[in-house]
Structures are given as structure tokens and as C-alpha cells.
Amino acid sequence: MTRLNWGMIGGGEGSQIGPAHRLGAQADGNFVLAAGALDHDADKGRDYAQRLGVAADRAYGDWREMLAGESAREDRVDLVTVATPNSTHFEITKAFLEGGFNVLCEKPMTMTVEEGEEIVKIAEKTGKICAVNYCYSAYPMVREMREIVRTGQVGKIRLVVSNFSHGHHGDATDADNPRVRWRYDPAMAGVSGQFADCGIHALHMASFIAGDNVRSLSADFASTIASRDLEDDAMVNFRMDGGTVGRLWTSSVAIGRQHGFEIQVFGETGGMRWASEQPNQVYYTPVGGRTQIMEKGEGGLSDEAGRMSRVAIAHPEGFPLAVANIYVDLAASIRGETRDGLPTAEDGVRSMAAVHQAVASAKANGEWVDARPPMYR
Ligand code: NAI
């Protein structure tokens, strides 16, 4: 099968998420990095793109140059990944969708709910794919949990408890480090700090596994380091359309926790737990029975869990290959297949609505608010 042409904006040398996209997109031979505007510094971006194998005339200085350059080509990129800082996602994603390109946007998709709704509408109107990189949903054993819920093996879901709490911004003496400070500065990060950064992964995961949408929420935000305007810790209670109760804790000051993303799902006839730091296992307990450890790659798992795994049982697969699973489904979608589970612009705008409504709730002492974007009310 011919490889698809792939372009990247952001994700330059030394960036956090850039390598995971490059490993992910190219892992299965679906995409070749054909174009890029990789850095806010034009020269550095051009230079790095060429060192990654991009032809000089497609190693662009900025995304507008890339949009013009690629639009004029017959072999234009089939997919553009937007891996720049949050505040730039909307204008870049919008411009490329309107230019007729498929887009994978990093989370959070936009800064406002209005922008999010606009992206959903543009994607619908242009018929182009707009995916959002909720990549944790593409771990094999997360797919297994989703299949277990779908096939009724734990009954109706009563409760979802999701944490994404790490301790890497817990050192008050490091709070002024520019790489840390911007995340809690409204001018750079928007209305929310930790909830918009990590909490939305946990919220998306709750919806993804439960197969339901968040309807209402009540939030308590705290800035535990006094110099921070935005929250570095949040507790969010929520309810889903089908009545499932949700509890979510997200923090960046939980010293000692490393990645700190885990989810527990409790149904009428069983419970399950998965953690990103032990992604090969799901702990499953049937009501009245013993806890069992389900292992990625073992017999008897769902086809979906099998499809998402490439390496033999017990070998760590990990984050870049979860991102790769997103790219596998993107490639299939670009080639005209339907792939269930790919996170889309709808997921992106639902997250943005939850962020903005959580901020409003926290300001109103935890008042319960409608968590849905107006377009889905
Ligand atoms: P970073 O600060 O490490 O890197 C950002 C990169 O984008 C740099 O190479 C910078 O030069 C480049 N850049 C900035 N403005 C640009 C522009 N206008 N045009 C082209 N390049 C530009 O940031 P990081 O941590 O890699 O985050 C990037 C995005 O990825 C954020 O939106 C973040 O929320 C998201 N992210 C998602 C993760 C996930 O699990 N899905 C994990 C980490 C980050």
C-alpha cells in the first residue's frame, strides 16, 4: 500500500510530544514525514525538518508558509499533525481543515467552547477528518476495558474514578521556571491549568470506557502554590447521561506520583482498574469473586485489544505505540475505512466545555453545572 504523506507543525527538537508523534506516525509504515513547520524559530524548524529527512522545499519556516506550499502541490500531505502550544491549535487546525487537509490536533483542541464548536462544524462541512490526540484511549488494555463494558461483562456502570495526578510541579522553588510558570498563567494557558492539561485526559478516558458522555459536574480547584493564578489541583465530581457517577482528581503537586494516570470502573457485577504506569494489565474483579490480572497479549481478549498490540505478551508496548494506534486508525480512515474509537473534534469540544464549566463551578463554590457544549445540549 502506498504510504501517505504526513506533515507536522510544532513538535520541534527538544519538544515533549514531538518524538511520540514521529515514532507513532511512522511505526507501521503508513505515513512518511513529507513536510513540516516544526519550530517557532523558523531556521531551527527548517534545519531540524531536513535532518529528519524532509526535502528542503517542504521544510517550512512557519505553518502559513506550509499551508500555502502544500496547497499548491499535487502530492500535498494527507494528514497534518498540530503539536504546538495550546493557544495556537485553533487557528492552525481551522486553516488546514478549511484548506482541505485532514488534521490530528493535540489536546486541548481549542481554548474556548465557541472555537471548539466551530472546529466541529468546519470538519463536518469540509468532510475532512479532525482527530484529537487522546492517545491513552488507544492502549490495548484500555480497549479491552471498553469491550468488557460494551459486552455487559461488568453490568451497568455505577461509578468511574479517574486520577491524573503527578508531582512534577510540586517544588515551590521551581515555580518560576519558565517551562513550568506558563502553565499556571492565564495569559498563556487560558482559564485552567492542571485540569485542562491532564484532567481532560482522565475525563475523556471515563467517557471512552463507560461509553457515555459527561452531562453535569461540580468542581473544586486549588492553587496550592500561592504564586499561581490557575489551579494546580482539582477535584471534579460528575454525572454521565446514563446516570454513572464520576469522580476525578487531577494534580501536579502530588509529589512522589510520577505519571499518575489511572482509572477504575465499577459496574453492577464487577470492577476494573488500569494504570498508565502498568499499561499491560487490567485488574478485574467479578462481584463475589477473586481479583484476576488480565495481561495484554494473553488468549481470550477482544479482537480490539489484539489489534492494538504489536509485541508479544509481557513486553512493554507503551506510549509511542499507543500514539501509533491513533495513526493506524487515521490512515485507515483516510483510506476510506470506518474506525471506531478514534477521538474526534466532538471529544475535543466536549472537553473544552467541561473545562470552562469546571472553572465556573469552582468559582461558584462547587455549584453543579451543565458540562455539555451548547451544540450537544
Ligand atoms: P513543548 O513546549 O515541549 O514543544 C512545543 C514545540 O512547538 C516546540 O518545538 C516549539 O518550537 C514549537 N512551536 C511553538 N509555536 C509554534 C508555531 N507557531 N509553529 C510551529 N512550531 C511551534 O510543548 P509540548 O509539551 O510538546 O506540547 C505541545 C502540545 O502537545 C500541547 O498542546 C500539549 O498540551 C500537547 N501534549 C499532549 C500530550 C498527550 O498526551 N496527548 C502530552 C504532552 C503534550
Automatic annotation (TrEMBL):
What Pfam family is a match for this entry? GFO_IDH_MocA
Domain (GFO/IDH/MocA-like oxidoreductase) spans: 142-272
Q: What class of enzyme is it?
A: oxidoreductase
The record places domain Gfo/Idh/MocA-like oxidoreductase N-terminal at: 4-134
The Swiss-Prot or TrEMBL record annotates one GO molecular function as: glucose-fructose oxidoreductase activity
Q: Which UniProt keywords apply?
A: Oxidoreductase
What name is this protein filed under? Glucose--fructose oxidoreductase
What is the gene called? gfo
